[in-house]
Amino acid sequence: MSTEQDNKNAVEDDIGRLRQSLNTFVLPIEKRQQMELCSHLESEMLNLSELTGKLLRVPAAALQVCRAAGEAARRRDIDILTLEHACNMLGTQRLASIIKALPVVEAEQMPHAYRQLLSISEHALAQAQGLFAHRMARLWHEVSLASLLFLSPCWVLVYQRPEVFAEWEARHLEQKAPGTAFSRWLMDSDHVLGLAQQLAEDWWLPPWILQGYRSLGSSRRTIVRALHIARDTQHPREQQAALDADRNLYRWLTLPANSLLMANGLALGAHHDWDARHTRRWQQLTALYLAQDVAEVQQASHANAVESARQLYPSSQGTLWLPAEALIWPYGSRRHQGNPSAVAIAPDQPTSPNPPGGVALWRENCLALAHHPERFTSLSAIVETAMQAVTAGLQIEQCWVALYNARKRQLTVYAATGFGAGATPAGVQLGDCRATPWGKWLQSSSSHELNAASMRLQSDFLPAPLRQIIGNSTACLLALTHKDQMIGLLGSQSAPGGSALDEKRRKALDKTAACLSQALVGFMQRT
After folding, report:
1. Predicted local distance difference test score (pLDDT) of residue 450
2. Dihedral angle at the C-alpha atoms of 431, 433, 435, 438, nearest 10 degrees?
3. Average pLDDT score over the chain
4. Please, which residues have CB within 8 angstroms of residue 520's CB and are 6 or more apart in sequence?
């Protein structure tokens, strides 16, 4: 008896220390991510929507921004609902200091379990945006932030205790019982939910997240009733009649905050098994919430998973498990620990049988940039459209866009595509390109072709970071100008050892650069 009591006391002491430790722990980000965020913060063309979009791509930074804003919001007794609200409350200088103060750890040095859990939250964000964005357009920012940060208390837990995630996977994938007394405590859903809710309250996270934890804790019977109705997928009229007869259930089901539960439920279920019973339950509940067929929700959730994998982890090389990989497996297949990944999600892998490409895509994107710049609501959308025109439209392997920051007098690579994992030049500073020898050289011609031999001849004024980006590739540099001033640089290059561009694609690149410049100038004038 005494031994059992001693074990219980030891677990309680461990839990107490754990809560205190988790409350103050700050998750690290990669150096590349820190550089990119700082560069965006200092850019004269950056607006608030653009900044929050970048923060959503760095979950640990988004969490820390919300925690810092939560401290100020608690004193004023108000809630933080969106990243825009959090950023406005903190201000640009405070945001910059928060980002610069974040610990920096390279991805391979972070616990694998933590990175895997982070990928689940990113998958949940993709599901939320893909399934609920059109239905709740006015609440899109609330849905996005809450869906991404819902599991954030568990991020910190798993970063400090990676074995917790391993035991969770073993329990669900291999039906193994947890080993230690502490592990058994953490495998109890009530304990985990209580710990996560406490941390969310301490950090003053968005109220939707707290409502989600309360629903899982105190509204389980309501969820069970909703799942029971959602299961009757063949009789939509009977489903609606059952909801009409239970107004409390109907009011609960239609709460916008429930979208984050469904998005995270789908992401967690897919991590385990697309065809498992609990995954199908979340699909059925989502279909009931959206008033759609289950097949439509399944198809949409599969597409969201693929798109998330392609955008966020184009070259994961098997280091992380991505549920999109299992979509090509036969029905009923289950992942288990030790299974190799089915396929790597390649950057150019199509998501549809006949994806648009070639000259038609290039022409469509250039027309949008030149003649319909008002369609673009963010700098990222403009840059990505131009890079897609180059890579998918002109079939050029690698592309990057650098933008000039007049305050810092720096030309910084804003975005890049086609580079391998860890090799992206995004965030690299190329130096001043105004009133400098190499800047004048860039503007001396519409485009400049470079290879290893020509770079040796031009080495006196070509910046070292630029030479490093190009390496052994054959590259083409095109100046982006406005009123005879450099505002950016478009770079395209082949894989190392590739051949030079033909004249037709060279002219198309010139046109692409002109359209991109026009779109950038229009965006600057609007913001």
Report:
1. 86
2. 100
3. 82
4. 45, 379, 382, 403, 480, 482, 487, 488
Place of tokens 């401290």: 71
Whole-number Cα distances in Å, 41 to 27, 208, 426, 493: 20, 28, 14, 28
- Across the beta sheet with 485-493, what order do the strands follow? 410-417, 398-405, 485-493, 475-482, 448-450
- Locate 475 and state its tokens: 């590259």
Count Cβ atoms below 10 Å from residue 424 Cβ, excluding itself: 20
Task: Give the type of residue at 311.
Answer: Q
pLDDT, tens digit, for every residue of 216-245?
Answer: 887 888 888 998 999 887 788 888 899 889
Cα–Cα distance, 383 to 388 (Å, whole number): 9
The tokens describing 165, both together, are 């995630």
Give the distance from CA 14 to its chain's centroid. 33
- Cα gap 154→268, rounded to integer Å: 13
Residue spans per domain, the chain: 26-110, 112-307, 358-526
Quote the CA–CA distance of 233 and 228 in Å, as a whole number: 10
**pLDDT 10s digits, 408-427:** 788 988 888 888 766 788 88
pLDDT of residue 355: 38
Q: What is the three-class DSSP state of 203?
A: coil
Joined together, the tokens standing for residue 430 give 């190329």
In 3D space, the residue among 232, 238, 292, 241 whose CA is nearest the CA of residue 262 turns out to be 292
395 token code pair: 């079939």
**Token digits for 458?**
């031009």
Range scoring the smallest mean pLDDT among 192-206, 335-349, 394-408, 454-468: 335-349
d(CA 424, CA 12): 46
CA distance 394 to 360: 10
Whether the per-residue pLDDT at 27 is higher than 90: the answer is yes
The CATH code for residues 358-526 is 3.30.450.40
Residue type, 84: E
What is the residue-wise DSSP string for 383-446?
HHHHHHIIIIIH--SEEEEEEEETTTTEEEEEEEESPPTT---TT-B----SSSHHHHHHHTSS
Give the three-state DSSP class for 478: strand
Report CA-CA distances (Å) from 243 to 208, 225, 251, 252, 393: 23, 10, 9, 10, 49
